[in-house]
Amino acid sequence: MYQQGSNDVLRLLSDPELEELLQLYALKSGIDSFQYLFIYTQLQWNKKLREKHIDEQDEKWISFRKKFYTHVNGDFRKYGTYVCLHQDLIQSVTFHTWQPNCNELLECLENTNLIQWKNEALLINVAPECSEIVKNLVQRKGGAIRRARSCQGLIFKRTNSLNFNKTSIPDGYELGKVQEKHADLIHSLWANNKEGSLDYIRGHIKINKSVGLYEASSNELVGWIFQNEFSGIAILQVLPTHQRKGFGRILVEALTAIIAETERIPVTAWVVVGNVKSETLLQKVGFERAVVYEWIQLENVANKL
């Protein structure tokens, strides 16, 4: 039975509770943990959206409003159990607990009505010890797995970020923040773009840290990189006409330094296991392997019934 007035096993956490959960993860797992950084970034986004007086119902900003839940009858302070749901073009689901048998978390996943098991939900950062259990749960819920990819989480500790030697920028180029007028270009070349994702790019430009590489003579944007929801680096791109010149490394180093200098957190990055090119670049800069999690994309079974 759930608490009076609740019709679901999941209870939404308030911002003060989310702040408390953040501190619990700092003590339990450290600020280098991806769970800490995920919660940290959402709290930062919440603050920036309030400062800009952006209405909570404004769908242009839906990509930056993740909701964190815990067991309605549990105490998140005991096991740090949370389920994060984010509804954009598809639903993304992230979850974690430090309870050894994961019982509280599994009860949440098993009994909630809020997860779209049959409608293309993306399960993010599924820990190896939970992977098979979660995949079996997908089947019991009538869902199907389209693709499961192992992703390597890499980390660059803040102390290293403050002290490393950055590659010199070649003559004729300069670094600066990405400008909103470049959103269409960035979106058109982004490998993960889809209908409606242009607002995601525009939002990153407005509230997140970014670095653009410009030709000094024309002020043409030739490369870019953004900070993502794990306070890490993402959406790295260099125009085909300017590749093989070391610009990718320059962009990675520049954003890594900015994050380290302005926030008291490490810098992270995710690459699909087997993406040797991207991982090699990150390791040259100084990133180190930290974890391997699975990202599980579900099928749209609902439309096939």
UniProtKB/TrEMBL annotation:
Residues 173-305 form the N-acetyltransferase domain. GO terms for molecular function: acyltransferase activity, transferring groups other than amino-acyl groups. Pfam families: DUF5645, FR47. This is Uncharacterized protein LOC131800830. It comes from Musca domestica (House fly). The lineage of its organism: Eukaryota, Metazoa, Ecdysozoa, Arthropoda, Hexapoda. The gene is 101899689.
